[in-house]
Amino acid sequence: MTYDLRRLRLHGFIxxxxxxxxxxxxxxxxxxASFCSRLYGRCLCPGLAALLDNTSAAPxxxxxxxxxxxxxxxxxxxEENLVALAG
Length: 87
Known about the structure:
Layout: H1 2-10, E1 14-16, E2 23-25, H2 27-52, H3 60-63, H4 66-86
Antiparallel strand pairs: 1-2
C-alpha cells in the first residue's frame, strides 16, 4: 500500500494532510477520476457491448477483428499456463 500511495502522491492525484497519516484527493486526482469514469460510461462500456453483441449495429470493420483477438488472448493464456506448469 505504501508503494501505491507514494505513486499516487508523486503523480499529484492525492495530497497528504500535514501532521497526520491521512491523504485526500487533489483537484488533479478528482479530475482524472471523473474523466476515467465518464470515458468508461460513455465510450468503453457501450462500445464493447456493441462489439460483443453479434446482432448489434456495430460496423463489420469493428466486429471482424474480434475473433482473432480472442484467439490471440487464448493462445497467450495457454502459453502462460504451460510456462507455469513447466517452471
